[in-house]
Amino acid sequence: MQVLIGTSKGLMVYEILSDSAPKELAIHFLGFSVNMIFVDERTHRWWVGIAHRHWGQKFHYSDDQGASWEEAKLPSYQGFKMINGAPAKLMEIWSMQQGGADNERLWLGTEPGGLFSSTDGGVSFELNEPLWYHSSRQKEGKWFGAGSDFPFIHSIEVNPYNSSHLYVAISCAGIFESLDKGASWQPKNKGLLAAYLPNPKVEVGQDPHQLLMHPLDPNVLWQQNHCGIYFTKNGGNLWSEVFLKKGRSSYGFSLAVDENNPARSWVIPVESDQRRVAPDLKLEVFETSNFGQSWKSVSEGLPTTHTFDIVLRKSFKRKGNLMIFGTTNGNLFYTLDETPYWQLISSHLTKVNAVVVT
Q: Which are the contacts of 79, defined by CB distance < 8 A and separation ≥ 6?
């Protein structure tokens, strides 16, 4: 398998096989922060979003696995305004997703909270106005930034059996569902708690950190939230909170799910919003096989000395028997074992922003 690693200083490409050590294949965009990676399984095209310190956001694609790159046209907010009347402008591309195996659509999630779509392979993108003008967004304080100045769409999940059905996760606003390819949207946040707000049960104002849909059962969604770990078995009609264990933080960003078992998932917790370090300075991965009724640490091979690493929302992936994650301190770990034994690929990268397995 090939693994694409987006770091604050470039895009790394590795090959990971079961019978040999991981091999570094290439480095692209050396020195620039690669904050978004997407591989379209229909066309095998690689897409990357790059955050230039001086030139802002850039967007590139490759049809030959990085042998050559083309710069793509950025989505535009021209003519659209924020609710305070200021002109809207693209701050960052956070996420990208294919629109389903039965069509050519691409979805793009951005900051300041706009969802774009393309029906011509990414030649042009159109802002989804039903979400941009959603009634909840028009009220001051309902959509707001979390770690950024503005709200941003970091997760897009499309039902593999019905391309008209999709979810987006917005920090901060919450989970929104569309049943008609984005023509209308409904918030799906019942059961979530926003402990940072006067009314923690608000319908809009929640802060999901990552959203994943189970590929075999699209009614099962997992969410790592600012205020805990949640799952739903009914498509988001009601979320249930689960806890790692008493006294153990359920704060974090990263989440992975088993492709075959909807009840099985993994999280890598963070101490807290205030102290974004590994809990007790111990980097650990936790696994559940029963929808969070119980958890166990599956951390063999990870550092046993104090570590300040955390794992960001796009930096932990599972595909087949491979699990891999990269940390904010540039450490890259992987395992091919059913009972994980983690091995270090590199301790010399810079901050890992995104990981994609292809």
A: none
End-to-end CA distance of the chain, in Å? 6
Tokens of 331: 């450490």
**In whole angstroms, what is the distance from residue 44 CA to residue 358 CA?**
9
**Which residue ranges form the domains of the chain, and what is each CATH number?**
73-242 (2.130.10.10)
The DSSP symbol for 248 reads: -
- Cα dihedral 215, 220, 224, 229 sign: negative
Length, in residues, of the chain: 358
The model's confidence at residue 248, banded by pLDDT at 50, 70 and 90, is confident
pLDDT tens digits, residue range 79-107?
A: 999 999 999 999 999 999 999 877 789 99
The identity of residue 93, as a single letter, is: I
- Residue 186's H or E segment, with its range, is strand 186-187
For residues 244 and 252, the answer to whether their CB atoms sit within 8 Å is no
pLDDT digits (tens, 9 = 90+) for 296-312: 999 999 999 999 999 99
What is the per-residue pLDDT across 117-144, written as a single tens digit (0 to 9) for each?
Answer: 999 999 999 999 999 999 999 888 899 9
